[in-house]
């Protein structure tokens, strides 16, 4: 069965074996068929020529060529005795060369004296022209090597001297020829042996090659060798091109192929890393952790023409020979699924942690406050969605609509943070960021609102998750009821109201985040008797005041100590019934107060005022600017402040409910907000929002 092979090495091996056998046989055959006969003829020709000239020397006198003298022919016997040589003396008679004396025998054993040389032979023609002749002839059916020498004397006598050697006298040369036959046979046998060995070795090589091909074809990793010039070897796995996202060929520069898919920094770092691996004096384990291609993200084109992002892991191992690095074995893997699974796992763990934390806070929160927040959050999200749906698809959304949504998002964020619903707080903070980005754009189109809609949908899902948790907790509480232990309290004291507990917790949370110390006290009405919408509004306002105080007003313990204050700041909240169908909220902190110069700087930074116009503002006018949307004395934005929306949202709520707000402050001592709201809140107001602001005397 013929061996079908694709291996170049196997083909070369078989070709070499065949070629070697053919060359040996050709050389031996050439020697036997060409060189040996030539050597034999040459040797015999030289022998006959030498003997012929020797015989001619013996018969150099014309007197020796008489018939009587030639008939004696004793000298001829010495040239043929003991051998198969033939010596003949010819006389030219009647136009023919006749054997006058010869040692040649006829077939019947008698001497061939009197016989003549064929006049048409080459020898006869050469003699007639006076030239010698040497060459093979046939005498009485026996091959001979012969030499004819013409003899001409002055007296007109003409003759010829002949020496012939029978080829049977060349026995050694013929034996050599026969030996060459054996050599040819031996060469053939040797060739067969070599071919057998070569074929067996070729089968092993081909089997190994096929195994390598099978491995390269079926393995899922991309594998190839990289030389010192960063060029790829001839053997690569079939999966390599699919993993890398581009075609590769032997001899390609690997880093140049990878360059369009990675950043310049990654490219430079990868080149330095590979150079380190190719150095013999650098330990491989020491630099393995420096591999910049261990996890890289690349973009490649799908078969349908679209773009996709994938993650690759490319690792390098040294190939050593005589303690020198000859190549690098490169292994490439598509770890996109692994990376995505790890991200999904981390996200899932984060969500579980968030849900666990949320569950803890839900269990600790007052159910009524939590339910009020969920109702208000759902209402606000519905309003936000309505604004998005009614926006003009071409012109997008107006600044006024954006500012309304920003205020709602900021109020919700404050309330969620007060309830320690961290996941909701973070989502609302991201929503604020998206709204601010839209606010800063010069042009807003309908498609720009898509991220906001996606974020709102996510918030719906998160609020739904909280409601589901509350429902499950309610089911558990319905099955098992455990009365919590009652903390001891002094005689005549009442337990803090749920909202007060929330405000206290929110203040402590912010204080820890900003490395400050604070205590909050409340006096006034039982908040449970207030209408839900009024209670919710007061809660949102106080949350904003707490946030504003802890971020902007309250100093660090070190600052307070330097100014002769206690290290712990105090926030006072007082809600009272004014007796005229209205309630008043009083919120006071003993912090640094309002700094008009900081407000002046913020006004210029916001771009709303030129330095000259800002310089012309009075302290009262500057103080009123803290209620303007988008103006903040904080230069950086975080979860707690920096957007200039908090007090603007308070101002909007007060105006919407038909109330009034007053502010009093002394720099370095305190800041005091007083908000008056009707018990029967108005759903809509027609007066200007600025009418609700006053500066306290």
TrEMBL record:
Reactions this protein catalyses: ATP + protein L-histidine = ADP + protein N-phospho-L-histidine
CDD domains: HPT
InterPro entries: Bact_Chemotaxis_CheA, Cache_3-Cache_2, HATPase_C_sf, HATPase_dom, His_kinase_dom, HPT_dom_sf, Sig_transdc_His_kin-like_C, Sig_transdc_His_kin_Hpt_dom
Domain (Histidine kinase) ranges: 542-681
EC numbers: 2.7.13.3
Pfam families per the UniProt record, alphabetical: Cache_3-Cache_2, HATPase_c, Hpt
Record field: transmembrane: 12-31, 182-203
Coiled coil, from the record: 402-448
GO molecular function, one term: phosphorelay sensor kinase activity
Keyword Coiled coil (UniProt): yes
Residue span(s) of domain HPt: 362-473
Record function comment: Involved in the transmission of sensory signals from the chemoreceptors to the flagellar motors. CheA is autophosphorylated; it can transfer its phosphate group to either CheB or CheY.
Protein name: Chemotaxis protein CheA
Organism: Formivibrio citricus
